[in-house]
Amino acid sequence: MKNLYLDTNVIISYLRKNDIFNDLSNKIMNYNNFERIGSTLTILEISSVISKQFDNIEINEAKIKNWDNLSIVEKKLLVIYYFTTKIPVKFYFTSNNEKFYIKDQDLSINVDFSKAIRIAPFFNLRTIDNLQLSSALNIRDIKNIHLDYFVTTDEVILDNAKEIQKLTHVTIIHSEKLIEIEKI
Q: DSSP labels for 95-163?
């Protein structure tokens, strides 16, 4: 069994039937020899995408009791809950805080944010990508879960893959390459 930390884009591709990476994501999501892992940050990103693109999501409203009586916020929350419970991903939360010193301030911040701050200077990643990488590393380090791959279709992360791998010992891989290597 291989442990995969899935970047949110892989999961969104799985949910979007017309996404260019949907076939790849479906293979990853349905392969029995993969343990698919995400974080609470992943859930947040999925929630944001669903909320922003809510009008484009196909919903069988007839199957949802009292759909017309729900507010737009309630509808979005219901859809977010539905999708996050149906995705074959195990989500982890690292609730630990740690000391973080800035000048003469003694701060206590979530370990994902702390690690993201510490790794940011090494890579040219967006904030959300630093946080995703930090979440993956903390799941590995705090939860003691070996990660075989960090799977993404994000070109910025992939462009930094060699540096990330060198410093973190996490293999960054495109969905397509994973399928090729694992012979799915």
A: --EEEEEETTEEEEEEHHHHHHHHHGGGS---HHHHHHHHHHHHHHHHS----SEEEE--HHHHHTHHH
